[in-house]
Amino acid sequence: MIMSLGPYASFIVTSYAAAALVVVILIGWIVLDYRNQARRLRELARSGVTRRSGRSAVDAS
């Protein structure tokens, strides 16, 4: 079932392709940033840095 998009077919197809490309780029960016953040957190944990929120109220005194 092929639909005729009329005289604006090239604009419509190009717009959808551009939107799909932007979505793919954003997904890739998020994946790369997640890997980078996870690596940085592992390095911090390995070096002994701890989260302040990990302490209990008794330890803060």
TrEMBL record:
Keywords: Cell inner membrane, Cell membrane, Cytochrome c-type biogenesis, Membrane, Transmembrane, Transmembrane helix, Transport. One of its GO terms (cellular component) is plasma membrane. Its main location: membrane. The keyword NAD does not apply. It holds the Pfam family CcmD. The keyword Cell membrane applies. It is found in: Cell inner membrane. GO terms for biological process: cytochrome complex assembly; heme transport. Belongs to the CcmD/CycX/HelD family. This is Heme exporter protein D. It comes from Bradyrhizobium forestalis. The lineage of its organism: Bacteria, Pseudomonadati, Pseudomonadota, Alphaproteobacteria, Hyphomicrobiales.
